[in-house]
Amino acid sequence: MTQTRGVFGDALLIARKDLLLERRAKIGLGQVIPFAILVLLLFAFALDPDRGVLKQATPGLFWVTVLFSSVLTLQRSFGLEAEDGILEALRLSGLSPAGIYLGKVTALTIELLLLEAVLVLGVAVLYDTEFLGIPLLLAIAVTATLGISAAGAVYGALAARLRSRETLLPLLLLPLLAPVLIAATRGCEVSLQREAMSGWPWAALLGIFALVYLTLGSFLFRPLLEDA
Amino acid sequence: MSAIVHLHSAVALIGRFPALAGVDLDVDPGEILLLRGPNGAGKTTLLGVCAGLIGLSSGEAVVLGEDLTSHRRAVRRRVGLLGHDSFLYQDLSVVENLDFWSRAAAATVADGRAALDRLGVASRLFELPVHALSAGQRRRVSFAAMICRRPELWLLDEPHAGLDSAGRDLVDGLMQEAAASGATVMFASHELDRAENVAHRAVTISGGVILPASQPEPASQPEPASQPEP
Amino acid sequence: MTTTKTESLSTVPAAPTGTGSRGTRVLGAVALLFLVIAVAYGLLISPPDAQLGNTIRIIYMHVPTVMAAYLAFLITAVSSGMYLWKRTEFWDLLGSSAAEIGVLFFAVTIVDGALWGKVTWGVFWRWEPRLTTSAVLLIMYIGYLAVRAIPADPKTRATRCAIIGLVAVVNIPIVHKAVDWWRGLHQGKTVLGTIDPEMGGTQLFAMYSALVAGILVCVWLLIHRFRAGFLAERASDLGLDQALEERRLESSPAQGADS
What we know:
heterotrimer; A: 228 residues; mainly alpha; C: 259 residues; Four Helix Bundle (Hemerythrin (Met), subunit A); 76% helix
C-alpha cells in the first residue's frame, strides 16, 4: 500500500480524523451548540418576542448564529492543527495539501450541518417557525454551509498560527461571508413565503460561492501550509 | 555524491535571524552523527533544514539525493523527524494517533502497531488519549509514529529527553539498529556521555556554524569522517 | 492598464534613497494639473445637473475615487497571483502598497457617498447597493492590512497577504451580485456612482478630468508607497550581514569559523 490514495483518499483520512476528534473531545457538541442556542435566546431578549420581530427575522437570526458558531468551529478545527507541531508533521507526512484542505472542509461541513439541524429545532421551538419549501431550504443549507466551510478553512488555517487569531479570524472571515448571509437569509425567506420571488437563484449563488472557494482553497492550501 | 546529507555554506533564516550562518556538513550513509552545542546554536534548525521544512536563504543542500533549494518537499516522505513537539493529537488515543499517522505516511496500520510494540508502549495505554500519558510515554508514542514511516534519514532532536534509563537504552538500540540496516541518523543531544557512545562521529555546532574538528573527538570512530570544508 | 503601470514600476529598485524621481515628479505635476481642471470644471464652470442639482459635484469626486479603489484592488489581486507564482519581493510590495491605497480610496468613497446621501436622501446611509458593497469590501481589505501589520518573516507575510489578496478579490463580484439582488428588490436604479449618458459637455469634461486625476493620483501614491516599502525592506536587510557576522562570532572562543 503505497501512494495510491490520491487527493480524495487524503481528504477522507483527514475528515475521518477530524470527526473522530470531535467524537472524542466533543467541543462542538458540548460548547459550540450550547453557544448557538444561547445566541437564539439572546436575540429573543433583544428583540422582544411579543412584537413579532423575532418571527419575521428568523432566517436572518438563524444564519447570523450559524456564522458566529462557524467562527468558533473553525478556531477549534485549526487550533488543534497548530498545536504540538502538528502542522510540521502534516507537511512531513506526504499528504497532499489539497487533500488536507478538502478533508477539513468535509468535516467542517458535516459538523456545521449538524449544528444547523439542532438550531432548526431551536428556532422551531423558541421562535415558533413553520417550515415550508423544504427542498429549497435543504439546498440552501447545504450550499451555504459548504461555502462557509470552503472559505472558512482558508482563513482558519491562515489565522491559526497567528497570536491574534481570535480577533483576526472574524475580521477576515465575516466580511467574506457577507454574500452567504444575504443569499441564505433571502433564500430562506422566499422558502418560508415571506418574499414573492423564486428562491433558487439564491441557492445558485450560494453554490457558485462554494465552488469558487473550493477551487481556490485547493490551490492555495499548498502555499498556506508551506509558507504562511 | 554518496553523502546522504551534503550542506555547503548553508544559511537559514528564522524571521530575520540567521539561525544557520553558513553550515558545511557531509553525512555518509549508515552513519550516526551527533550534533552537540549550546542552546540556540542552531541544532534544531539544522534538523529542520535536513527534513525539508526550513528553506535555505543561500548555500547548497542536498539530502537523500534531492536538491533542497529546488525540491524541498520531495525529501519529506523519506525522513523521520522527532522534534520537541509531540506531533500527536492530544485528544485522540494512542492507537488512533498511530493509525492516522501511519496511514498518512502511506504505511499500514499494522506498521503502526509494530512500531508501538518496538517502543515498548504497553497495550494498556493504547486506548488512552495522548494528553493522559506521561511525558516519557508520549515520547515513546511520538517515536513510534516516526519509525512507522520507515525513514531513510532519522533526524532526532534530543531523543533522550524525558525518557527513563530503560527508554534511553531503547532509543540507543533503535539508532544502532537503524544505522545497521542502512538508514542514517543525525541527532542532537545534551547527554554527551551517552550520546558519544552511540554516535560514530560528533560535530559541534555553535553560533550557526559547525566548528572545525580540532574539538575533542568522540571515543568510538569506526569510519573516517569527512570533515566540513570551508 | 495594469501592465503599463507595473512596467513603469519595474525601474524602481534602482531608486536609492528617496521615493521621488523625475518620472514621479512629472506624473505628480500632471496629476495636479488634472486636479485643478477637475476642481475648476467640477465646482465652478459646469452647471448644476437637471435632476441632481449641485449634488452632482460630489459625484465628480465619488466616481474617480471608487474607480481608483477598484483599480488598486485589481493590482493587489494580480500581484498576489504573481507573487505566488514568481515569489519575488516586487509583487509582494506592489500588492500590499496597492491594498493600502485601495483602502484609502475606498474610505474616501464611502465618506463622499454618505455625504451625497445626506444631501439627496436626508440620511447619511441608505442600503444602496454600491455603498453597501464598498463597506463590505473596505472591511475585507482592512483585514488584509491587519495581517500585513503582524510582524513576521517577510516571505511568510508575503504569502499570507497574497492568499488574502486572492481570496478577497474573487469575492468582489459575488458580493456585488448578492447586494444588487438584495437591494434590487426594494429600490429602483441608483444614480450614485454612475456616469449619466445625458450629461452635458462641461459636466462630462469635469467628470472625465476628475477621473483622470483620480487615477493619476492613485498611481502616483502607489509608486511612492511602493518605493517607501522597498526602502523599508532594504533598511531591515542592512542588519543581515552584520547579524550573520555576529551569529558566527557566537562560536568564537574556538576561533571564528570562516571569515
